[in-house]
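I have been asked to look over a protein record a colleague put together. Thanks in advance; the entry in question is below.
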Amino acid sequence: MPTYGKLDSFDESEDWTQYVERYEHYFNANEIDEEDQKRDIFLSVCGKNTYKLIRDLLAPAKPGTKSLADLTKLVKDHRDPVPSEIIQRFKFNSRTRHSDESVRTFIAALRSLTEHCNYGDTLNAMLRDRLVVGIKSDRIQRRLLAEPNLTFEKALEIATAMETAEKNAQDIQASGTNGTFQKQINKVSKSYTRNNSGNSKQGDCYRCGGNHLAAECRFKDAKCHSCKKKGHIAKKCRNKSANGNLSENHREFKSRFKPRAHFMEQDESSESENEVYSVFHFGNKSNEAYKVQINVNECEIAMEIDTGASVSIMSEDTYKEYKSKFRIEPTSAKLRTYMGEQIPVIGRAIVNVNYKKESAKLPLLIVKRKGPNLLGRDWLNKLQLDWKDIFSVVGSDNQSSDLNVILEANKEVFKDELGTVKGMKAKIYVDESAVPKYFKARPLPICGDYKVTVNAVSKLDNYPIPKTEDLYATLGGGQEYTKLDLNQAYQQIELDEDSKRYVTINTHKGLFRYNRLPYGVASSPGIFQRTLENVVQGIANVLVRVDDILITGKTREEHLNTLSEVLSRFKRIGIRLKKQKCVFMAEEVVYLGFKINKRNLSSGE
């Protein structure tokens, strides 16, 4: 019988699931049905590194004693642990179409991102929403938003049809370029006119480069970001060519600042009407809002910087909060959303604006709509913002946003209450021949001295407590560190009914029994260590030493995935943490008397 296909050893750069799928297709094509034969073929061809990994993971058992399904699952669990659903959904909701990406390629990328999102029956609805929001084409987006009862299939059909039509139109226009060019050779440009002095060309405006007279330029009072002089913008600055480059602040602004998702620009159909586009993005670093605190009429107002907005606006909520500070007047200005919906304008105010050492009287539109206050180009032209300060604040916010999503999703873990580990109760094993001892109540805080009672006659739980040397093996390659602090650690584990009698204490109000695992019992550390290790079993980069837990990762994403999984398990099993004593994503922590960072581990406080 001929053999179809060829089996290769596993390449570390390949996805393990895809590799296993290729094996399954090979077995089907060659009608190999015997499970033992499948396993032996797999072990013979998978490669020496993969075989060694399987042996190490199974030791002391041998690979030949397991089924193929068990072996492939073993490697998958080791190589590709199930990622955090929260992080995967965040990635999906942050994905937008790239400028050189086709609609169908964009959809394929979205489908790939949904693998671990667990959307279930809502998958098509989520794909539809992400297609509409992330399409990055105003024309297609408006068409999709105008479609009633839009389904994913319909949205994909419309988007691909419009994309194809646009490409076809470009091809047609390109084919007619040569003929058009010939007609233009002898055509006199309208920009050339005669005046009394004999000059034939109006020329570019020296203030901004536009095709108009400099006297009519709207930037004649603007301040240049390069030389700080009035009368032109940095693009046409003459000092720029003489001095070399733009100022450091302006270079950083040009390289890092992208227009936000709110655009406000002059409508071609009306000189008094502006258009506002409000497209909501999910907070990834590339489109994170740049905000600045501005003193407006002696009120500290947070404003979102928007280079796409020609005017600055204040939301109705902010206006109501500081209403007594503003005197507004009627205005003919009109604002519209990208759907053509008009946003009511409450009025216009001339306000005193102060920012650091700068001050100016500037116009401000107040709108009857919730949302951010926008600092538009009219204010940007008058104020010299401290871009370095703004960028540093946003960078800090970006770094904490992913962490906040995880903490919010697991906020139950940080409730100010005593946790209760579900599904298990601690048992203390005492010699049956032991005789109870009586001690009179002490005039001290209520506690039990178990050294002379239960510890002397009980079987010690010798579950191994990790040594400090284990830090090196677990924390190698870590970049940042999270330290978790349990709230009344031992007492989150309940005692079984029979064990309660062994921890009876005498008080001035009589005899009482502990219902939960108390401190001072010799077996408590081992019981607690075993319990926590079972909870976090299978999660890499987690170190547990009784009630001290340390988490790290070779990358920030790996660290967040690990933290998310640990907190998720704690929430599911009922463990509670003391948030004010936890440390999250720190570059350096002190753990068990050691100072730990990505460079070294040293003794310190």
Notes: The longest strand covers residues 345-355. The two ends are 71 Å apart (CA to CA). DSSP finds 19 helices and 19 strands in the chain. Residues 177-203, 241-287 have pLDDT under 50 and may be disordered.
